[in-house]
Amino acid sequence: MSRPGHVTTGRYAPPAAARELVAVSADGARLHVEVHGAEGAPAVVLSHGWTCSTAFWAAQIRELSRDHRVIAYDQRGHGRSPAAAAYSTTALADDLAAVLEAALAPGERAVVAGHSMGGMTVMAAAGRPEFAEHVAAALLCSTGSSRLVAEATVLPLRAGRARTRTTRAVLGSRAPLGPVTPLGRAVLKYATMGPGSAPDRVEACARIVHACPAGVRHAWSEVLAGLDLDAGLAGLTVPTAVLVGRDDRLTPVAHARRIAAALPHCVGLTELTGMGHMTPVEAPEAVTGAVRELTTRYLGSAAGPAAPAAVPAGVVVPAGPAAVVVLAVPSDAGASDTSSASAVSDVSDTPKEKTA
Q1: 3-state per-residue secondary structure call for 307-351
Q2: DSSP per-residue string spanning 261-296
Q3: Nearest residue to 114 (alpha-carbon basis) of 135, 90, 86, 84
């Protein structure tokens, strides 16, 4: 019997959904949607990244569903959403629009959080009427809007055409990843996570990534290689926070800084020292805290008691239209690790002066 596409015990095991539904996208693609938490609670919608699934958000779902209604869905071809005929940024936008319409009541608003390709989904959908109707604020985690292959530092080569070609070939490989092995875990940790990531976090990510079908992984890699959503950032007018790991090799911190500078209403850029690309798993409290802060501000929710800080207070420095909160998060900490839940609230909505 094959191993499931996620861990089944511990904090990264996905909790059972309160209910499930199917959202049908514009081209007929069917999307698996899970709803966690109580009906009527403030709503949060989670959009995962390339090669992942709803299981990637297990830590956020478990914590937020105590006092929020958490809606998570599998991108087409991932998790329990079947493969589709088309893969494009238009499909990403169509799919999120379909989920918002299927899971939220008319006029109901939510905070939307997207990781990696999920963040690109948010950017792509920003101009849709469904987005305008249903989204009160957004969180972009470990993502980019263009030049993904050219700026990735997964391969230890000098920037240039050779690195770009080789990176595209590696990330776009059609080869199946096979079962999770010690070598597979080591490669995934190097490419996508911070150097201090604990074994349970590496295992959780490896199970999910290795479960993604090779054909789907390749199809989406072609979309990401040609990604250009820079122009669309102007349409993402809702209050938006940006979060990134400083050791991210897939979407290095320069992407987050450019996005924060381009957003019409950026409410903060949080850079996590020692974290890689898989921030919802590597620094779950930082991501959960950022979502809670947004729901408190823009949905008026009672977000519950803040977790006690286990890291030094963030240092806020001006950075264009947003402030930067740099947090040192111990990546090898166990289930009790926390990062400041006020990471975004330390950042004023008022644009900061740009430094030289």
Answers
A1: CCCCCCCCEEEEECCEEEEEEECCCCCCCCCCCCCCCCCCCCCCC
A2: HH-TTEEEEEEEET--S-HHHHSHHHHHHHHHHHHH
A3: 135
Report the alpha-carbon distance of residue 91 to residue 250 in Å, rounded.
22
SS3 content of the chain, % helix, strand, coil (to 5): 35, 20, 45
Beta-sheet pairing, 322-328 with 315-319: antiparallel
3-state secondary structure 101-164: HHHCCCCCCEEEEEECHHHHHHHHHCCCHHHHHHEEEEEEECCCCECHHHHCCCCCCCCCHHHH
**Torsion angles phi and psi, residue 287, rounded to 5:** -70, -45
Q: Which residues contact 331 (CB under 8 A, 6 or more apart)?
A: 194, 195, 196, 197, 198, 201, 274, 275, 282, 283
Nearest to 222 by CA among 89, 128, 324: 89
pLDDT in tens, the chain (356 residues): 345 688 888 889 999 999 999 999 999 999 999 999 999 999 999 999 999 999 999 999 999 999 999 999 999 999 999 999 999 999 999 999 999 999 999 999 999 999 999 999 999 999 999 999 999 999 999 999 999 999 999 998 889 999 999 999 999 898 889 899 999 999 999 999 999 999 999 999 999 999 999 999 999 999 999 999 999 899 999 999 999 999 999 999 999 999 999 999 999 999 999 999 999 999 999 999 999 999 999 998 543 433 333 333 333 333 333 445 665 544 444 433 433 333 333 333 433 333 32
Distance CA 294, CA 282 (A): 20
Residue 259's nearest CA partner among 356, 144, 355 is 144
pTM of the model: 0.87
Q: How far is CA 258 from CA 29, 144, 163, 176, 228, in A?
A: 33, 9, 22, 34, 13
Q: How far is it, in rounded angstroms, from Cα 238 to Cα 57?
A: 23
Q: For residues 222 and 103, what is the distance between their CA atoms, to the nearest angstrom?
A: 30
**Shortest CA distance to 98 belongs to which of 128, 119, 123, 68?**
128
With CA atoms as reference, report the closest residue to 273 among 294, 253, 296. Answer: 253
